[in-house]
Amino acid sequence: MASLSAIQHPPFSFPLPPTADANAVANVNARTDNNNTTPFSALVAALTHSLTTTPSPHLPTLTALLRDYASQPEHWRAYAHADRRKQYTRNLVAEVPGVFNLLMLVWTPGKKSPVHDHADSHCLMKILQGELMETRFAMPEGGAGGETSAGASAGAEDAEGAGPGKGGQEGLRETQRTLFREDKVAYISDQLGLHEMRNPSMTEFAVSLHLYTPPNAAMYGCHVFDPETGEARHVVQGAYDSIRGVVM
User: Fold this and answer.
1) Numbered residues of the known binding site for Fe cation
2) Annotated binding site: which residue ranges?
3) pTM here?
């Protein structure tokens, strides 16, 4: 399996908006964690610094930062709000408007996301607790998120159980299933396809950290897909379940 640093990604770039100035970054760091000495707080600060001091995201740096952090629940549990009534919860850890948002998702046992695109953004994910199964699909020709230009296996780093999925004449074409365990890191963009994420455990919650840059889905919504028909539907993301540890 190719490492993320070796994968050639499209040259996404975006100007830093006026909000991404020194004051905004300082405010993000100040609000992120009341205890700025934990390794998790240091990770958030390092991701923020990398994304606000370069004109475009440097994926090898971001990947290395996520990979080097060893998950310790006592450092991040304040953000990990669960709700068994939902498939998963979306908890905002940090953001700089127009540049990135960092979310902690808590997955209810046995539940999954819809098949979705990533609104022309980079998405990096790190498993903090438990396991998640990714099912990846080829982007439909002329699909809502654009054409895929890279192999479906690209972008999965440190994966176990990866392999080709089943194809079909109708609906979405499954290309790969990958089981990600604790501390593993993955990358996806619309150029690599669509995916569905599922918590395979029927008894334990899973927790994952997701970095989106730029945060297009939060600003404009994304598309969810019917795997049987390939039909796409635009959706606007709902409110966060918590913001920097405060339940909404």
Assistant:
1) 116, 118, 195
2) 116, 118, 195
3) 0.79
